[in-house]
């Protein structure tokens, strides 16, 4: 190649590290006959090329058009540069001390690797740790940056000559694939006394024989067992002391998924995504799944095999496997080898494990399809740490750390338009989750070189996340912004949907469990008029007392009692309802105000209805149990909405559910079946809140309604409310990648903090 | 009782109540202050302990006690857990106009009885009657002095990893009794306050465990508050086991209905003690042999891990953070 043409320097930003971007550049440069080099720098890829102007232009066009599937090119800048020496194009090693915003999530095994492990002639035939630049572990093995093997949990495995050759060859699919491994040099399976393929075979036959095993995955250990055997699944529930919470099931492919549940085109796409989430699907009630997998549920959470280990295991077992997080009751998922054996003793019959350490716990993500789109319910493996973009006028916002809530805790690190919502870290009630939370923050700050200039927390002083953030702000001398819970929920939906920072107010409809409002009382069913900076409550559900505080959220009968007493009084209370419950005591608590705070909670309204229909146990064994049972009960039935009344009180509009309860009690007395009542309830709540939100929109001259809050995980409700608002001619913004529950709270907190700080600087 | 600008008849009346009840306390002339012989005090130890506490409780009389007994025991206990032998108390009384004289008499009699049984004298006091609404029925403030045993040095910052945490009995009785009395909660089993003076028990404990590190009476905020202060001040982690925490079944049931955590309920006759591991057995045996410690239990240990944190191993084998309450206990579940 002769030395001709001008040189230039090209900077590519986006997700361009850990996705095979440099070899891709290398191949392009060769194709267009360009000399120069490519390197990872800080948060970008820098390319130095020399060649004819047309070739360089074609190169840049291809850079964008043909980028690797997992890359995301966001910005390409070109500046003239000093001439390049030499005629070759080469890949420069990453320099130390550079930091990337481009760490990618863990990726499901790609088709090429899948065929390789199925090919008896291939070097990696039946090798459980096969991966390439298009697939395999990423975030779960990263210990530091830049993303290179010595800073991953693969550092202990020295490359064999064959792997080294592939790693060094820019033309190879495994060029600079950091987790590259083969049976000679890579991680090994172990199951009792068995190793490698023998371990896999032994574990598979144990599972077939009805064993309950721990299986080490990408972001933690799972507990696996035959999902079609009622006896085995019931035994797992007994050992885990987990009576009712649905268990996720792993299947080998879409066909296997379709044998268990209805799978729409969108759902098939979600299942097959490289993030391989658990997707909630309508189960076939006459299908082969053991009833205990998801007792009383219309839906079941399925995921496809996403590692070579899973592919091989499922193929050997030949049927679906329960794949639930390995933990003891109330404890987070186990991910450290040294803890696994002790923590799972008495629960599993054996461990199918291996010697590649997991750097951080990453639980499986959970999504469902509702209102025509993917709704993330739990952000987890495969989704984190993908940064999301805020609207353009957030450009230049200072770096902010937002700490979210205590339940489904997740933090958000933002800088300018980029907002990184961490994966689901768990409930901040146990020291192990608290450790993970602190570690995730340190981790993220490190990996993303994030130095916050402000800290955002929830207004609730009792949240550990709030206390953590407050201490951090004090320690570093940073401004602390305490954000009302539901303003944050709505702001999360705004920011995710690209609503401009200076786009003016919208109507926010927050249907949620409980959160602290700006008047110091508990909110959870509110219509707000808000932008990013300010929020004003216009309407709410009539508050009712929660006798026992948090216990009322676990025991729906208490809330039913409070709702019915408020609606129809003690005299109207059906004599056959809540038999054997200490009603007098709870009524006395409410009368005397003993641990019975008032709350306008939509979540508790659903709980109460579930209790009325006998769908809620005395004490819930997991959060959302009652609400999920109510949604399942309603099914697809269309029914006339239960009525709700609107009235004005204390300058607020209040939705009064008393007519709803009176009608429901009449239905109950008349023997109307539970599914019809559940359907009427859903329709009633949807109609009342949609009409109220539309009325608020009209009164304030607004045309957009943003929805959020954990209650909107109910697909039937979400779809009904969205349809009714659309029918009012309103634009509707829905939560999608950011969970509607508290797992998305930090995202909204950060946006509010950023908007307020920018406003205070006159921007 | 009527309030008035020092109407002598009324003041005489009140002073009658106190003087006749506290007579024989050894103060001959009604001076404005009590006077102590320093050499006699010095013979009992090497430091003077001095403490004060204000008592407001609704209702004034509750199962197992009343505000008067509470005011005497509370201050005795504050002295005792510092390793002091209580010597004398003072008492200031604020009375809301209209409080029946019989009520006052009953409270004062209870104070006198409690003090006498404890072997502690109430040597001085003051009373004021204020207008209706300016206070709620009756407020008491007691102040006490005591003498700290020579060489004994207990303190909240003295916990060390490996040390053993014990309590002298069933927890939460006082808090549950008060709430129950206040709420008219239609519960079948009455719960009595544990209100009691602990200085004699403390003497027994110190004799059995001379290396004792710390004692605290677990009043407001309960055992959880004491353990959190201990963890913070000593820079240690505190690990307790739910199954080892002594609870009356009635209190447990009460807490379940009310949605309260018994670890945060107030006690008025319970202390938390931290002793070195080698003295733990002797300490437990000694406390259990005492009338006020029959249900004593070792509930946990101090650890080097997680300094500042109190962690409870739950009955299901999990772990739960037990932290300080911030303000009112608002629900956290979203
Ligand atoms: Fe929430
Ligand atoms: Mg005190
Ligand atoms: Zn691959
Ligand atoms: Zn190799």
What's the topology here?
The complex is a heterodimer of chains A (763) and B (334).
Chain A: E1 6-15, H1 21-31, E2 35-41, E3 44-51, H2 53-65, E4 72-80, E5 89-91, H3 111-117, H4 161-168, E6 189-191, E7 194-195, H5 196-208, E8 213-216, E9 221-226, H6 230-240, E10 249-251, H7 254-260, H8 265-272, E11 278-282, E12 299-304, H9 308-317, E13 321-325, H10 337-344, E14 350-354, E15 366-370, E16 373-378, E17 388-389, E18 400-402, E19 412-415, E20 418-421, H11 431-447, E21 454-458, H12 464-476, E22 480-483, H13 485-496, E23 506-516, E24 522-530, E25 535-541, E26 544-545, H14 550-554, H15 556-568, H16 583-592, E27 598-601, H17 602-612, H18 625-634, E28 645-649, E29 652-656, H19 658-669, H20 674-700, E30 704-708, H21 715-727, E31 731-733, H22 745-760
Parallel strand pairs in A: 2-5, 8-14, 10-12, 11-15, 18-21, 21-22, 23-30, 24-27, 25-29, 30-31
Antiparallel strand pairs in A: 1-3, 1-4, 2-3, 6-7, 6-14, 8-9, 9-13, 10-13, 11-12, 15-16, 17-20, 18-19, 19-20, 23-24, 24-25, 26-27, 28-29
Helix pairs in contact in A: 5-9, 13-22, 15-17, 15-19, 17-18, 18-20, 19-20, 20-21
Chain B: H1 8-22, H2 38-42, E1 47-55, E2 61-62, E3 65-66, H3 67-80, E4 84-96, H4 101-118, E5 121-130, E6 138-148, E7 164-167, H5 173-183, H6 199-208, E8 214-217, H7 222-234, E9 237-241, H8 249-258, E10 271-275, H9 280-289, E11 297-303, E12 310-313, E13 319-321
Parallel strand pairs in B: 4-5, 9-12
Antiparallel strand pairs in B: 1-6, 2-3, 4-6, 7-10, 7-11, 8-10, 9-11, 12-13
The complex binds fe (iii) ion (FE), magnesium ion (MG) and zinc ion (ZN) (2 copies).
Family (chain A): Belongs to the carbamoyltransferase HypF family.
EC number (chain A): 6.2.-.-
Domain YrdC-like (chain A): 197-382
């Amino acid at each position: 190649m002769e030395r001709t043409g001008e040189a230039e320097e090209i900077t590519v930003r986006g997700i361009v590290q850990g996705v095979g971007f440099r070899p891709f550049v290398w191949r392009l440069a060769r194709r267009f006959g360009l000399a120069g080099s490519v390197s990872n720098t800080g948060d970008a890829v820098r390319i130095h090329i020399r060649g004819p102007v047309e070739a360089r232009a074609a190169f840049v066009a291809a850079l964008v058009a043909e980028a690797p599937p997992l890359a995301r090119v966001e910005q390409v800048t070109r500046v003239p540069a000093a001439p390049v020496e030499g005629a070759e194009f080469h890949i420069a090693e990453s320099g130390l001390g550079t930091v990337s915003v481009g760490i990618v999530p863990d990726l499901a095994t790609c088709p090429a690797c899948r065929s390789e492990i199925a090919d008896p002639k291939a070097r990696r035939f039946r090798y459980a740790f096969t991966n390439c630049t298009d697939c395999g572990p990423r975030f779960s093995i990263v210990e530091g940056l830049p993303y290179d093997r010595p800073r991953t949990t693969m550092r202990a495995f020295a490359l064999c000559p064959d792997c080294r050759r592939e790693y060094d060859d820019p033309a190879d699919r495994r060029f600079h694939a950091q987790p590259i491994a083969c049976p000679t040099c890579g991680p090994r399976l172990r199951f009792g006394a068995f190793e490698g393929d023998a371990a896999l075979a032994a574990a598979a036959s144990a599972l077939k024989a009805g064993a309950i095993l721990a299986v080490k995955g990408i972001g933690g250990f799972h507990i696996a067992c035959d999902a079609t055997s009622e006896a085995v699944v019931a035994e797992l529930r007994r050992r885990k002391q987990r009576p009712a919470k649905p268990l996720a099931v792993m299947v080998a492919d879409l066909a296997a998924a379709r044998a268990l549940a209805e799978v729409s085109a969108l759902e098939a796409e979600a299942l097959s995504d490289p993030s391989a989430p658990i997707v909630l699907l309508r189960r076939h009630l006459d299908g082969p799944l053991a009833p205990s997998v998801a007792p009383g549920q219309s839906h079941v959470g399925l995921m496809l095999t996403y590692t070579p280990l899973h592919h091989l295991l499922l193929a050997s077992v030949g049927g679906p496997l329960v794949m639930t997080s390995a933990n003891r009751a109330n404890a987070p998922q186990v991910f450290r080898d040294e803890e696994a054996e002790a923590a799972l003793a008495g629960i599993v019959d054996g461990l199918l494990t291996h010697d590649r350490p997991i750097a951080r716990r990453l639980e499986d993500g959970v999504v469902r399809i509702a209102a025509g789109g993917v709704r993330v319910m739990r952000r987890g493996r495969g989704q984190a740490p993908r940064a999301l973009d805020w609207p353009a006028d957030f450009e230049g916002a200072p770096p902010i750390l937002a700490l979210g809530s205590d339940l489904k805790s997740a933090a958000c690190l933002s800088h300018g338009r980029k907002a990184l919502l961490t994966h689901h870290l768990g409930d901040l009630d146990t020291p192990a989750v608290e450790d993970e939370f602190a570690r995730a923050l340190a981790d993220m700050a490190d990996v993303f070189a994030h130095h916050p200039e402000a800290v955002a927390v929830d207004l609730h002083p009792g949240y550990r996340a709030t206390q953590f953030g407050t201490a951090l702000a004090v320690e570093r001398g940073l401004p602390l912004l305490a954000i009302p819970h539901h303003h944050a929920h709505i702001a999360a939906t705004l920011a995710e949907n690209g609503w401009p920072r200076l786009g003016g107010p919208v109507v926010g409809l927050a249907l949620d469990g409980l959160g602290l409002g700006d008047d110091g009382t508990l909110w959870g069913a509110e219509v707000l008029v808000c932008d990013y900076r300010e929020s004003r409550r216009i309407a709410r559900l009539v508050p009712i007392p929660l006798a026992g505080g948090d216990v009322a959220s676990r025991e729906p009968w208490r809330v039913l009692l409070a709702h019915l007493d408020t609606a129809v009084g003690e005299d109207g209370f059906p004599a056959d309802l809540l038999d054997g419950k200490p009603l007098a005591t709870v009524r006395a608590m409410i009368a005397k105000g003993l641990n019975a705070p008032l709350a306008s909670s939509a979540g508790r309204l659903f709980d109460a209805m579930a209790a009325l229909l006998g769908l809620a146990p005395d004490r819930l064994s997991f959060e959302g149990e009652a609400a999920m049972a109510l949604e399942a009960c309603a099914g697809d039935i269309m029914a006339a909405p239960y009525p709700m009344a609107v009235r004005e009180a204390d300058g607020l509009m209040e939705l009064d559910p008393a007519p709803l309860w009176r009608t429901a009690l009449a239905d109950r007395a008349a023997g109307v079946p539970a599914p019809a009542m559940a359907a009427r309830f859903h329709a009633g709540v949807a109609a009342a809140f949609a009409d109220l939100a539309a009325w608020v929109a009209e009164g304030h001259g607004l045309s957009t309604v943003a929805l959020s809050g954990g209650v909107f995980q109910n697909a039937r409700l979400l779809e009904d409310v969205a349809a009714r608002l659309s029918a009012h001619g309103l634009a509707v913004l829905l939560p999608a990648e950011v969970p509607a529950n508290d797992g998305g709270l930090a995202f909204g907190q950060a946006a509010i903090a950023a908007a307020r700080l920018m406003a205070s600087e006159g921007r | 009782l009527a309030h008035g600008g020092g109407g002598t008849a009324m003041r005489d009346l009140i002073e009658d109540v106190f003087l006749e009840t506290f007579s024989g306390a050894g103060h001959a002339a009604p001076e404005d202050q009590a006077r102590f012989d320093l050499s006699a005090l010095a013979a009992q130890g090497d430091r003077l302990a001095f403490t004060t506490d204000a008592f407001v409780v609704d209702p004034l009389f509750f199962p197992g006690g009343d505000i008067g007994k509470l005011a005497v025991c509370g201050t005795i206990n504050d002295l005792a857990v510092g390793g002091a032998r209580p010597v004398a108390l003072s008492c200031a009384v604020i009375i809301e106009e209209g409080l029946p004289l019989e009520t006052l008499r009953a409270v004062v009699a209870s104070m006198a009885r409690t003090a006498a049984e404890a072997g502690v004298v109430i040597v001085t006091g003051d009373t004021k009657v204020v207008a209706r609404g300016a206070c709620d029925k009756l407020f008491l403030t007691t102040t006490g002095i005591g003498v700290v045993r020579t060489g004994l040095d207990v303190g909240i910052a003295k916990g060390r990893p490996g040390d053993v945490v014990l309590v002298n009995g069933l927890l939460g009785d006082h808090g549950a009794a008060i709430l129950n009395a206040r709420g008219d909660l239609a519960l079948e089993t009455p719960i009595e306050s544990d209100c009691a003076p602990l200085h004699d028990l403390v003497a027994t404990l110190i004799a059995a465990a001379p290396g004792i590190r710390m004692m605290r009476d677990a009043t407001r905020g309960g055992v959880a508050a004491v353990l959190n202060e201990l963890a913070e001040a000593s820079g240690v982690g505190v690990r307790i086991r739910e199954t080892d925490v002594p609870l009356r079944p009635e209190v447990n049931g009460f807490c379940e209905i009310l949605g309260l955590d018994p670890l945060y309920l107030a006690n008025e006759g319970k202390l938390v003690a931290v002793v070195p591991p080698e003295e733990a057995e002797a300490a437990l045996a000694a406390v259990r042999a005492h009338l006020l410690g029959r249900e004593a239990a070792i509930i946990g240990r101090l650890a080097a891990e997680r300094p500042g944190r109190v962690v409870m191993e739950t009955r299901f084998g999990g772990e739960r953070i037990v932290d300080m309450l911030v303000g009112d206990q608002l629900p956290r579940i979203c």
